[in-house]
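User: Fold this; tokens only.

Assistant: Input:
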Amino acid sequence: MIGRVERAVIDLRTTEVKYYIVHKNEPSIRDIAVPPRATMERDDELVVDLIASEIQAIPEYRRTHESSADTFEMTRHTRVQCIDGYVGTIEGILVDDMTDEVTEVIVTADLLGKDAVVPAAWIGHLRHGHIELQCSKDEIARYVS
């Protein structure tokens, strides 16, 4: 294992994942930006499908003001708001393999104590530090797994 996915960088206009930020452990500790096409899912985990020399060639990821203007960095614990208030945090995202678009978000609904898988179409706004869904907490409850 080269590291763990810390966050997904999402294009604000298209909801497409531009890249995954991987916190790399070996041989040097650094964050790298891995394009979705260089990843695959295995046993419900996202794995990097590159050889060691390709991984070493990826430069260290450094967030810049220019890159943050049109992107949103989503982490596993990004706050989720509904139209009637706070509902929970992001547990994960589901991404279309062909388009790299976020199709669903997995929300840990704190009030319900369970996860809900909701359509990405419900995302109204991606703002610094949180996601705003265009639905109510009651609607989220219908999507609890």
